[in-house]
Design a protein that fits this description.
binds magnesium ion, alpha/beta, 16 strands, eight-stranded mixed β-sheet, VC0802-like
């Protein structure tokens, strides 16, 4: 039996640590629900800190003035720490102080070099989680753990690929003794290379971290504490009349996450499914409410799930000599997309053109155009939205498509998808 088989992993996202009051609520949940078995707490950056760090990084990397946003970020974190009585002191293990972390961030920003955008991004944007976990650990009087030397990844910056055997060995050696001392707080979203450089696991990657830790340590369950009541069939900020799934299978959840349901990071489910670890999604606002249990289960027909991805780009390629789009052409296109790391959300082929819908990135699109412009005529539209209805029926299709001009649509047995112009983030009744 695994040494820490009673272990529970809690994951708290940005909204649950957005200010001092939120962190007090987190502490309350840990006290009232944490129980007596070992507890590992994964925390994301506070509120919208990751976005703020991205902007800060972009300014610094472009050689522009970033002092004002940096000051704002520093004061925000120091202010929350102070409010919680969690300002600098030394607890348990040797950890940096908040001031030291903030100085490290400042140094990183001051010494950026041109180029190596993705690599340097990771060295800067990772501070959101480092700062948040330090404050939460202090507020809980729990141990702070730097996960970067333990969660080993390759050098795929901004989307580090986990080296599972090494990570499992590292965590198995380091964590059980620490967990016996009491709760441990660690960062979501982060990893480290063999040479000690910081990597990140992809935006919203803290859920994935919780799964990595649970898998490697043989946890009994993972609980993701969110600002919604559980796994819903749509994001209530975007869609009216959402319903909660009381339980749902790993497979269904993976598919929803794949299509962009933002409730859980897409990579989270597989490690949990492999080891049969249930994932509980609960509301940090109503911690005693039931939530959703994601596990190995069978269920009947599920309510249709609605998923919107914004900021999409539709790119179409035509071969210049008006020959057909052939396997050879496709190979070149796919190769270039992989090279610039643009992920295909939807694709469609016709005789002389091939279209892909991807998340928009000016930087990656530019690189793609440079690589393929000679061989293909390329058109693209930005500012689009991709809608997916999983387990659709006629009424659900009508609800979404009525009054819209569809630029592209696709239907399989379970899934209906279409691309249309952005509706200014409209709320859907
Ligand atoms: N803080 C990171 C992000 O905002 C990771 C996460 O929240 O899961 O993307
Ligand atoms: Mg987040």
């Amino acid at each position: 039996m695994h040494a820490s088989h009673q272990l529970r992993v809690y994951k708290f996202g940005g909204a649950s640590v957005k200010d001092a009051a939120a962190i007090r609520n987190l502490a309350h949940i840990v006290r009232t629900h944490g129980g007596s078995s070992p507890l590992l707490i994964v925390v994301s950056a506070m509120g919208k800190t990751t976005n703020a760090l991205e902007e800060l990084f972009q300014l610094a990397h472009a050689g522009q003035d970033y002092i004002a946003p940096l000051t704002k970020l520093r004061e925000f974190h120091l202010g929350v720490a102070q409010e919680l009585g969690a300002a600098d002191d030394s607890t348990f293990t040797p950890t940096p102080t908040l001031t030291e972390l903030l100085e490290q961030l400042q140094d990183k920003l001051a010494t950026l070099s041109p180029g190596e955008f993705d690599k340097q991004y990771d060295q800067v944007v990772s501070f959101g989680e480092l700062l948040a976990t330090l404050i939460v650990a202090r507020a809980l009087q729990a141990q702070w753990l730097d996960c970067r030397p333990l969660i080993r990844t390759d050098h795929t910056w901004r989307e580090g690929r986990v080296d599972w055997p090494t990570t499992e060995r590292n965590l198995g050696a380091a964590l059980p003794p620490q967990l016996q001392q009491g709760p441990v707080v660690t960062q979501g979203f982060l990893g480290g290379t063999a040479s000690g450089q910081t990597t990140t696991l992809g935006r919203e990657g803290s859920d994935y971290t919780a799964a990595i830790l649970a898998y490697c340590l043989g946890a009994e369950s993972v609980t993701i504490w969110k600002d919604v009541a559980g796994l819903l069939n749509a994001d209530p900020k975007i869609f009216a009349d959402t319903v909660r799934y009381p339980e749902i299978s790993y497979q269904e959840t993976i598919e929803m996450a794949y299509y962009g349901a933002s409730v859980i990071h897409p990579k989270t489910i597989k490690p949990l499914a492999v080891r049969g670890i249930p994932l509980l999604v609960k509301s940090f606002l109503h911690p005693t409410a039931e939530g959703t249990r994601i596990h190995d289960c069978r269920h009947g027909l599920l309510a249709p799930a609605f998923i919107r991805k914004t900021s999409q780009c539709l790119i179409s390629f035509e071969s210049k000599d008006l020959t057909f789009i052939s396997e050879e052409n496709l190979e070149v296109i796919f190769g270039a997309l992989a090279q610039v790391r643009l992920k295909i959300n939807l694709m469609q082929n016709s005789a002389i053109s091939f279209s892909v819908c991807t998340d928009f990135s000016a930087y990656r699109l530019e690189k793609l155009l440079a690589a393929l412009r000679e061989q293909f005529t390329i058109h693209y539209n930005t500012g689009l939205e991709l809608y997916t209805i999983k387990n659709y029926d006629a009424a659900s299709i009508r609800r979404l498509t009525e009054g819209r001009e569809l630029l592209l649509e696709q239907r399989t047995r379970q899934t209906f998808q279409f691309v249309c112009r952005g509706g200014e983030n409209e709320f859907i009744k």
